[in-house]
Each structure stands twice: as C-alpha cells, then as structure tokens.
C-alpha cells in the first residue's frame, strides 16, 4: 500500500545536489541524437576536430536547455507527482528542493543557454527556442491531447538530430529524419504504455491523457510503428544518401540491420515482459545487452562509412 505523502524541509547546503537530480542528467543520453549528422555526413567530419567541437557544444546546450524544461515540468506537476509511486521521490515533489530555487535555476539556464546557442549558430538557437516554446505548450496544455502528446515527445528527438546537422552546415537526409521520427514515436508509445500499466486504475488522475489510451490501443500503435521503423531503416540501408559508401555488389550498410532488429526486439521484451519503458535513457544505461547492441551498431556504421569509402 502506498504511504501518504509527507513533506520535508529543503536544506540549502544540499540544494546543488537536488537541483542536479531535478536536471535529470541520466536523460542527457537523449542528446546523443545530435551526433547523427556528424556520423552520417558525406565528408569525414567525425575526424575533423572543429566539427566535433561544434557538435559537442550543441550537445552541451541541449543538456542545459532540456534541464530547464525538466525543471518546469516538475514545477507544473509537483502536486500530481506527490501521488505517483515513483515520481513522489523527485526533489521538488518530496520537498528537498524549494520551488523558488528551481524557478531561479530555470531562468538562469535559459538566459545563458539561448544566447550561447545564438553565438554558436543562429539556426541552432532558433531550434532550441522553438523547442522551449513547444515544451511549454506541452507542459501546460498539449500533454493532455491524445496522440498529439506522443508526437511532441518524438519531435524533441528530431529537433536534436536536425540541430546536429545544421550546426555543421550540412544537408539533412530525409531518411535520417524519417528513421529518427519513427524510432522516437516507438519510444514515446512505449513510455505511455509503461505509465498506464504502472498506475493502473489511477492513471488518469496523474496524467489526464492516459484515460484516452488503453493497453490494447497502445499495443496496436506500437506494432504499427515497429514495422514502419524497421522497413524505413532497411530501405535507408538499401538507398544510402552517402555516395561514398559502395552499394555494389552488396549494400554494406545492410549489415547493420540485424543490430537494429535485435535492439527493437530487446526493447519490446523489456516493455512487455519486464514492464519497463518509462525511461529509455535508464534502459540504455542499465541493460547490458541493449547497450552492447547499440555500441556494436555504432562501430559497424562508422567502420562502413569510413573504411569502405571510394
């Protein structure tokens, strides 16, 4: 039986610790999507120190801006999080971090992050600004709109991918956007299913939009998006946008398909058999088979792109 909420008094000496926890550094793993353009670029940008530094700077800016959004989300949901079996232990919901401290930190992150992004790349700054506006709309209204809520979650990953390409001034492959968007929808739907299963009959009281979903509906959606993701990736490997990768007599990028299939199947196993999927970044960090699969996929992609160039 869930224990009733009991507030604690925030301690100033521990404020940095709880502020960092609320910034959710584990979720910074999502920002690795900014490296996609660097890896799949036509030129050898991965070995170019200047290009690598620009993408690393973009990664850092995403960590800063995304952290401000996490703070806003926790401020908006502070009362509902106190009734959640897991989120009630977050610093704001538990009382370890004062709301005033979170508000000040949010403003500082935004005031520092957006101007720095403008100095790095105007396009990246615009993408981050649009992301902030979109997430504010999500936090206050759009997270209650069925189906649109998962599209907004997925859009965040696409924004990261696009920003990683524009900071380098390279063309954005439509295949890269399609695969990123579909994979992001897959992760978002799995997250909704996890919330629905975890909260059971009380799901709607914590997140109103969950009343509009059912496990059967989400299962159908996940099945559809899983097939679409695999087909899109396979077509991408058969029609690479990188002209330097040989496609005859055998499209070498097709070798990476088994890693993608295994990764998706492993994720489905964790979602349906282990009731995971609420935090993709945590699964990535703690599930060794998943982590090993992603590392091997990355090594294979880079090897094909950089060793077999014409």
UniProtKB/TrEMBL annotation:
Q: Which GO terms describe its molecular function?
A: transferase activity, transferring alkyl or aryl (other than methyl) groups
> Cellular component terms, GO, for this chain's entry?
membrane
What does the UniProt keyword field contain?
A: Membrane, Transmembrane, Transmembrane helix
Family matches, as InterPro entries: Prenyltransferase_related, UbiA_prenyltransferase, UbiA_sf
Primary location recorded for the protein, binned into one broad class: membrane
Quote the Pfam families the UniProt record gives.
UbiA
Where does the protein end up? Membrane
* Membrane topology, as annotated: Multi-pass membrane protein
Give the superkingdom in one word: Bacteria
Transmembrane feature ranges: 28-46, 52-76, 97-118, 124-140, 147-166, 172-190, 250-269, 290-308
User: Per its UniProt record, what NCBIfam families does this chain match?
Assistant: PRK12324.1-2 (NF008977), PRK12324.1-4 (NF008978)
Name of the protein this chain belongs to:
UbiA prenyltransferase
> What is the organism of origin for this protein?
Herpetosiphon aurantiacus (strain ATCC 23779 / DSM 785 / 114-95)
